[in-house]
Amino acid sequence: MLRMNAARDDVKNPLEFSFCGLDFASPIVLLSGCVGFGEEYTRVEGFSNTDAGAVVLKGTTLNPRLGNAPHRVFETPSGMLNAIGLQNPGANHVVHKVLPQLDFTETRFIANVCGSTIEEYVEVTQRFDQSPIDAIEINISCPNVKEGGVAFGNYPEASARVVAACRAATRKPLITKLSPNQTDIRENARRCIEAGSDALAVINTVMGMAIDVETRRPIIGNVQGGLSGPAIKPIALLKVHQVYEIARPHRVPIIGQGGIKDALEFLIAGASAVGIGTALFYDPMVCKKINQGIAEYLRAHGFANVAELVGTLSTNAQIQDCAVSG
Ligand SMILES: Cc1cc2nc3c(=O)[nH]c(=O)nc-3n(C[C@H](O)[C@H](O)[C@H](O)COP(=O)(O)O)c2cc1C
After folding, report:
1. Which of 166, 228, 239, 290 to mutate to test the pocket of ligand 1 (most atoms within 8 A of CB)?
2. What total of structural domains would you count in the chain?
3. In angstroms, what CA-CA distances link 14 with 27, 289, 291, 305?
4. Which of 168, 202, 221, 253 has the most CB atoms around its CB within 10 Å?
């Protein structure tokens, strides 16, 4: 009996893999802004951070931020608009008060760094560099105050400048979260890799709005918000496929995200890990189901582990810049 148990312990978990040198027990990554600072869902019975390979903490700025005026979230057909406005307690609080409360034996924890200037990104990155955090993700969707509020991430040149500056500030794995709200995500991905990004997160939310026709006012206090959830999944999948073409030769892994509640398509398209955000709001147990679904698929299709499945999409067609859609 003892020998049988020992043999079972030797069997490698097929969902395990190495991401930028970090051991992930599952390809699932819980996404920034959807799980607080890693503690939020642990209050839900049956939920466990151990079901995720990594948890990304809420976006963190140098100083505390109260966020936007309400409404901050609004449900749309197959999706959700949000304009939280990066409400967070500031980098010092997160590093000194939040991180010591986290159980680093459960999963890997990733910081999500935000800023209105390159200097702010660098300062926040430095604070996390001097902390036990496992990796740093830079959210380049923040508005650049010096350039009149346009998002850094919508322009390859601005994205690359943020990445290069943060790269110089840390030796921890650096992940850049790309915006879908731009003309050519491939060019942006290329520039971020050249600037020193170890991994890419694809995609952040798609900008949208909703209107109350009775008051003829925008529903979201910030007028516009980021659309997430199943409505953006086909967009996210195409972006992952496009970015994989650029990232694969550099062996830069992708965390695919956007409307995921079943991960297989994203892994096949080239994502090494899959982000789960909005899906948690309607099913906090979704991670267990996804892990089980991936494991069953690997078994049924003869893959020894999840890494073997990544990027196995079979297509003869080249990506067209101006795709014919009608
Ligand atoms: C309420 C909410 C808050 C978010 N806050 C952040 C954030 O602070 N930083 C960030 O990089 N992304 C943030 N995001 C974007 C998510 O991390 C994720 O990239 C996006 O929602 C797409 O995935 P999903 O469709 O699975 O939610 C937020 C999303 C939501 C819904």
Report:
1. 228
2. 1
3. 10, 15, 10, 4
4. 202
